[in-house]
Design brief:
six-stranded antiparallel β-barrel; PDZ; EC 3.4.21.107; 32% strand; Pdz3 Domain; Thrombin, subunit H; repeat; 12 helices
């Protein structure tokens, strides 16, 4: 812009400057990108072509054919007979197909992929066949050797009359944030797609208690699942498994199962055996800021025991609901090193020291690691019906709740009320008669008919005991009260409720 204004000024003052400029011969013109070559980042190759050329033949496409039972949407309607969906119509069978990626780990045809790639994609669906396609377009029918849904890993086998190209695993424990990685897979059925990026995080917990992932900004999309993540030496350090995306497409956040976790599982599945994991038999929750405040502990150190399963390792060791487990086998329990993650990797039958905090005092117990039950059985542990059967709500109760320090109005749990709300006859505590929904208690789901068994780990059966527990919290300078709450049909659980703002 400054140059443009200077020329304009010369035109206004006279033609001399322009005349001098216009008589100069034009210089030789060259393209802006003539002879240009960008330098490779330090530690990265100038090109990935040679490495990819060697690795691609070991990466395969995996497709499944499935049968899905679907109910005719017109069944039982006036249009049912017209569209074949009368009262007696049977569910109809539809064909479905899924696509994913995998990679060969041996010359005789063993293949690693994700469990969800070779699983039925819908309830009532069954997988009829699995087809593996190599980069040279050769197709093979694959046999499922083993599958582990907890780790999302599966092993397949194809039979070829020749030795097949394969790749080996590397050591993901040596991976660092910022390292370059390459992903090869089958996104959106575009076979042999290569993407590159860096490791964004290691040991990323995406919400599961026992999962840990390598996070990358290399493009991972639908269909990349089961494909390999390579380091710059061409070793497999991860199996691409998940993406985080509001739109369903790549936003630069992909996750791969680290080889350090995958290899033991794959070795077990390859032998035709089932994967066994350690188990203590506790239902746990993170030590949130509110819960830590209610206990006077530092947050993000340890996990809170909500309930204990009878006759399992934790119960036999004397661990109780309300304990905070801070160390297992001399490893600190943190958001990155969760209890489930640590225990899941321990040998079954091993005796391990467990350090916990109970009533403000540290103590150590010894537990024997058990075997983790099937996921279906675990789903029933701690579950229950949350329906509220406590009736006769009144405006007076809501007004009373609004006046309380926690936004909760309570009353003694009489045998009559216990029958109305479905509580066990021997239950002792206070029943919540109303909740101020504008308070933390309302935000955390407390409701009329819930039974408060204890406050700050002290049993409460009268309103005076409840108020005394709250007063003790205030006098100690804390801002939350730890409540043990029983809901009909469910296990008793702990909730830290913040005092209402004054």
């Amino acid at each position: 812009m400054r140059y443009a204004y200077a020329i304009t000024g010369a035109l206004l003052l006279g033609g001399t400057a322009i005349a001098v400029t216009s008589t100069q011969p034009l210089g030789a013109q060259t393209a802006q990108n003539e002879g240009m070559q960008a330098a490779a980042p330090v530690g990265a190759p100038g090109s990935l072509a040679d490495m990819v050329e060697k690795l691609q033949p070991a990466v395969v496409n995996i497709s499944t054919r499935q049968r899905v039972q679907v109910q005719n949407p017109f069944a039982g309607t006036p249009f049912g007979d017209l569209f074949g969906g009368g009262q007696g119509a049977q569910p109809q069978t539809r064909q479905a197909q899924s696509l994913g990626s995998g990679f060969l780990i041996s010359a005789d045809g063993y293949i690693v992929t994700n469990a969800h790639v070779v699983s039925a994609g819908a309830e009532g669906a069954t997988v009829d066949s699995i087809t593996v396609t190599l980069t040279n377009r050769e197709e093979y029918s694959a046999k499922l050797i083993g599958r582990d849904t907890a780790s999302d890993l599966a092993v397949l086998k194809i039979d070829a009359k020749k030795a097949l190209p394969f790749v080996k695993f590397g050591d993901s424990t040596k991976s660092r944030v910022g390292d370059w990685v390459v992903a090869i897979g089958n996104p959106y059925a575009l076979s042999g797609t290569v993407t590159a990026g860096i490791i964004s995080a290691v040991h990323r917990n995406t919400g599961g208690g026992s999962d840990r992932f390598i996070q990358t900004d290399a493009s991972i999309n639908q269909g990349n699942s089961g494909g390999p993540m390579f380091d710059m030496r061409g070793n497999v350090i991860g199996i691409n498994s998940q993406i985080l995306s509001p739109s369903g497409g790549n936003v630069g956040i992909g996750f791969a199962i680290p080889s350090e976790q995958a290899v033991p599982v794959i070795d077990t599945l390859r032998k035709g055996e089932s994967v066994k994991r350690g188990y203590l038999g506790v239902q746990i929750s993170p030590l949130s800021e509110d819960m830590a405040d209610s206990l006077g502990l530092a947050k993000n150190r340890g996990e809170f025991v909500q309930s204990v399963e009878p006759k399992q390792g934790a119960a036999n060791a004397g661990i109780k609901a309300g304990d905070v487990i801070v160390k297992v086998n001399n490893r600190e329990v943190t958001p990155d090193e969760t209890l489930s993650y640590i225990v899941g990797g321990l040998p079954i039958g091993q005796k391990v020291p467990i350090e916990l905090i109970r009533g403000g005092q540290r103590t150590t117990v010894t537990a024997v690691v058990g075997q983790r039950p099937p996921e279906e059985q675990l789903a029933n542990f701690g579950s229950g019906d949350s329906d509220d059967d406590f009736s006769d709500k009144s405006p007076q109760g809501s007004a009373a709740a609004a006046q309380q320090a926690l936004g909760i109005a309570v009353q003694p749990l009489t045998p009559s009320i216990a029958r109305q709300i479905g509580a066990a006859p021997d239950t002792r505590g206070l029943v919540i008669s109303s909740v101020d929904q504008s308070t933390d208690a309302g935000a955390k789901g407390l409701q009329r008919g819930d039974v408060i068994l204890s406050a700050n780990n002290r049993p409460v059966t009268t309103e005076a005991e409840f108020n005394a527990a709250i007063a003790q919290v205030k006098s100690s300078g804390r801002n939350a009260v730890l409540l043990q709450v029983q809901r009909r049909g469910g296990q008793a659980g702990f909730i830290a409720v913040r005092l209402r703002d004054k």
